[in-house]
Request: fold
Amino acid sequence: MFWQEQKKSFEQNPKAIRWHPMMIRFALHIHLRSPSANQALRESNVIKLPCERTLRDYTNTVHPSTGFHKAVFDDLKHQAGKLNDIQKYVVLMLDEVSIKDDLVYDKVTGKLVGFVNLGNDVDDCYTIRNKEKNIRTPNIATHALVFMVTSIAARLKYSLGYFATTIATADQLFLLMWKAIRLLETYADLKVVVVVSDKAGPNQRLYSLHKSSDEITYRTKNVFATDEPRYIYFMSDPPHLLKTARNNLANSGSGSNTGRLWNNGKDLLWKHIIDLYETDRKSMPRTMPKLTNEHVYLTSYSKMRVNLATQILSETVSKVMMAYSPPETHETAVFLGMMDKFFDCCNSRPAGSVHKRKPFLAPYTSVDDSRFDFLKNKKSC
Reply:
């Protein structure tokens, strides 16, 4: 069949080929593993494969549009039926990404895409709240709010839907988040135990809407849990926290009007890292070969990359700074080491602690694990 398909593709017009379903599945397998590899094979002309447009038509079984899609939840419910009770515990993630503000004509639906669209439930709520104006001027969306669910103990990961926004407010997020939780709990038969987001202001205000006392709001009762009393815990995304810590350090002492981080009477300054990098760059061999200008001379793009933050806030840089930098950089080095351990605590995996010789990467096996004491009480290391 493969050779027959290849012969047919060389003899016919590429735009008129009707590919065998097995060839499409073969091309999809390559494309989903590596789009660049699929493109390289097509451009080599060694073998003929379906174009990316054909593959995209087969992968998008649900036409992408704003909102939560019933077809997605139907498939999610089918997959959840194969899971045991432990595997049904899931994490709901939400995040906003910046998009280019523009209008695009969707030839499938015949609609203009690009206006703010938060779904009928949210729109109706705000229409009632602003009924005295009785006029709603459509805005062009600048962000896409995405909801995603993943199982804690199984290989289950679904994008539930997205909404076009101009930075969603906390009360808008409140309505959408609880709608997603209701659909997951009552329709898909999954158990939401954690909600994860970054430290953006609207997300922090969203959590504060669940405040029931003067304590920090870190959980709320799951009102859709009918089988057992259950809480939903609010967590900040560790990679975002790491980038935030790096950015705060980068701003420490960067100008006359900026504040300085300090501990034990010593400043924590980004200048300490720049001086260490410039000294290391001139030495051969280098002690920190992974560090480049992108790591220390930050731009608006490099600030978004998690790997640059992790390689700066690392045990390696901390130890090199301890060994070769002046005494006044000691607290900066301590801070780098503590952030490395914090990220390891959030990124534990069985093989990592052995191969990398980093005990903080070991799996958690007890509620008395010493790392919990480190996260709650440790002020230096």
User: Anything to note?
Assistant: Residues 67-235 form one domain. The radius of gyration is 26 Å. The CA atoms of residues 74 and 173 lie 23 Å apart.
